[in-house]
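Limitations
The C-alpha cells in this dataset are predictions for the assembled complex, not deposited experimental models. Users should treat interface geometry with appropriate caution, especially where small molecules or nucleic acid strands are included. An illustrative entry is reproduced here so readers can see what is and is not provided.
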Amino acid sequence: MGTIQRYTAKERSNHWIVAIAFVLAGLSGLALFHPAFFFLTNLFGGGPWTRILHPFIGAVMFLSFMAMAARFWRANQITTADRQWMGRIKDVLCNHDQNLPEVGKYNAGQKYLFWVMVVSIPVLLLSGIVIWQPWFAPFFPVGLLRVAVVVHALVAWILILGIIVHMYAAIWVKGSVRAMTRGTVSEAWARQHHRAWYRDMTGK
Amino acid sequence: MALQSLDIKARSATTTQPPVARDPIHVAKLIDISKCIGCKACQVACMEWNDLRDEVGTNAGTYDNPRDLTAQSWTVMRFSEVEVEQGRLEWLIRKDGCMHCEDPGCLKACPAPGAIVQSVNGIVDFHQEHCIGCGYCITGCPFNIPRISKKDSKAYKCTLCSDRVAVGMEPACIKTCPTGALVFGTKGDMIRHAEGRIADLKERGYANAALYNPEGVGGTHVMYVLQHGDQPELYANLPKDPHISPLVSVWKGITKPLMSLGIGLAVFAGFFHFINAGPKEVEEEKAD
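Predicted assembly:
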C-alpha cells in the first residue's frame, strides 16, 4: 500500500525545535526543582550555567511552539465526535479500536494535549519571566515571585506529564513516529487511526 | 566545614542528615534598640571586616544610608520617626540584617546543594561558590534580606561573622558598638541579658517592652529588645509574626516528592501498559 503525506518538512522541523527545547528546558528545570535531579546541571555546564540557560531555552520553546500552534490550531478544534471518542477511552487503551467514532487528523487525546500545551506554555513563559534572574525578577514584588515559582513548577509538571503521554503514544501506536521523522504514514495506518482524515486525503 | 566550631546541621538541597553528633553552643546577637544611638559604627565595622564597599548613593531625606540592604551592605540602620503617644516623638533605630532564623526560609528554598548552610551554633551562611544565582532564597526569606549582587549574580547577606565566631571572636559589629546596644554570646545568655533590659525598660514606663525572638521561624539567632514589643511594625516594618510563606512551604515541601513521584509513575504506567496491552499495530503493515 502507498503512503500519505502527514507533515511537511517545515512542520516537522518546527515540531522538533519545540521538542528539543522542551527536553532541554525540562531537564534543566527538573535540576533546579528537586535535589535528586540536581546532577542534571552537569549536562548544562554546572549550576550557574543551568540557571542562565534555562530561561532562554524556555523562550525558544515558547516562540517555536506558538508557530506550531498556529499551524495546527484549526485541526485541533474539539468536536462532538471527540467527546464520544474520549468517552470510550477504555476501549482505546485496551486496543479495541473497532467501532470507535471516526477520527480526523487528530484524535481527542491529541487535541486535549494540544490545548494543554496552548495554555501551559504561555503560563510558563509569564511565570518564568517573573522569576528570571537577574533580568526581570528584581522588578517584581516578592509576593508575586512566590506565586510564580509555585505556578511555574505546577504547570511544568502538568506539561511534563502530558509529554510523557505524548511520547508513549508515539511508541504505542506503531507507524506514528515516521509521520514526524519522514513526514509520511502508511495508508493502512491512516485508515485505521484517522479514517475521516484518510478519506479527506485520498477521496476513498 | 573543617572547623568544628562551624559544624553544619542543615544544608540546602540536601535530603540526608548532615553530621550532628557534636552539639556546641548556640550563639545569638542581641540588638537592644533602646540603647542604639544610630551612629552606624556597626555598618562601618561590617564593611571593614567583610571587605565590602557599597556605591555612594543619594540622600533620600532620611538618615538611612545606604537606603537599603545590598550585596555590599549587609546591615543598614533603619530610622523610624513615630508617635506612639500623641505629641511624644520617638526615634526608633533598627539595625536591619539577617535574623539567622532557626528555621531558615532561604535554606529551604535554595536548589543548590550546599549554597546555604546552617551551622550547629545557629548561624545561617551563604556559600557563594555553590550559589547559582536563581534568587529562590529571596522568596524564602520572611525578612527581605538576601540580595543578588549585580557583579556576580550571587546572593549575599550578613554571615554573623561566621569566620570570626568560628575562632572565638565576636562579630565585627558587636566589637565596635560604642553604647553596648549590640551584645553577643550564647542564646541562653542573650535571652537572660534581654530579660534584665526589659525589666529595666518596664520600670522606665515602657510597659510593652519585649524580646523579639519570633516563634514563626523557630526563633532567631539575632534578637531585638523592643521598647514597644507589641508593635514591631513601628520599627521600619519589622514583621509581627514572620513565617516562611505557605507558598514556599508547599513548593519546597510536598510538591517536590509528590510531583517527582508522579513523573516516575507516568513513565512506569506507560511501560506496563505496553507490557499488558501491547502496541497498536495496523493489519496490513504486519503483512509487509
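Some entries come with short summary sentences. For this one: The longest helix of chain A spans residues 142-172.
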